[in-house]
Amino acid sequence: MVLKMVASSYEDSRRKRMEENRKRMEALNLTQLSQFLRKLSSPISKPSPSKPRTSEKQLVVVRRSGRIANLPAPVYKERGYNMYTDYSRVYASEEARVEALYKAEKLQSELNSKHPIFIKTIRQSHITGGFWLGLPVHFCKQNLPEQDEFMTLIDEDGDEYRTTFLAQKKGLSAGSRRFAIAHKLADGDALIFELVNRTTFKVYIIRVNPSKGEDLE
């Protein structure tokens, strides 16, 4: 009988404490807070990845300008083509070069000139690109003007070609191209320059390949 009374008293006390705790939680708004926290702890569903947008590639026809639409397509020459002389580069052998130089030296001795004179062997750099023709430094210092000046080249037929002598660079620039093209100079040709007056050279050409030179002429 005593145990039943103790148990009943304990149960009444427990229910009373629970009721008091419930009232305190409601007063502090703890019930809504616990529900909010349960929502936050629930797993978040991730959105399904969207498929990448693909754009269809289309071929576009490039329109040519009306000014060039009817013109033929450009033709590109192989490397080594000389746009000025219209023939491919040909390099002389050392034997042919020496032979042409020997003939030039022989002709120089036969001229027996009293004027300053020298021999120049032609290289590819003299007849392609910029057509720059360098002259012997010692000859320039002793015989040519100290300032830039026009000089005339006269070939064996008496035709004259005006060039520009650059004193600082010791060579012929503008005008030497026209002379090289007119005489179809080739790698290995030997030229005799005879300074007949202060600004005029008489030029003799010894072909490295005489048969070819005759055909070109």
From TrEMBL:
InterPro entries: B3_DNA-bd, DNA-bd_pseudobarrel_sf, REM16-like. One of its GO terms (cellular component) is nucleus. SMART domains: B3. Residues 1-22 are annotated as: Disordered. SUPFAM superfamilies: DNA-binding pseudobarrel domain (SSF101936). Residues 11-22 have a biased composition (Basic and acidic residues). Residues 118-209 form the TF-B3 domain. It is found in: Nucleus. Keywords: DNA-binding, Nucleus, Transcription, Transcription regulation. The keyword Metal-binding does not apply. The keyword Flavoprotein does not apply. It holds the Pfam family B3. Its main location: nucleus. PANTHER family: B3 DOMAIN-CONTAINING PROTEIN OS03G0184500 (PTHR31391:SF4), B3 DOMAIN-CONTAINING PROTEIN OS11G0197600-RELATED (PTHR31391). This is TF-B3 domain-containing protein. It comes from Pisum sativum (Garden pea).
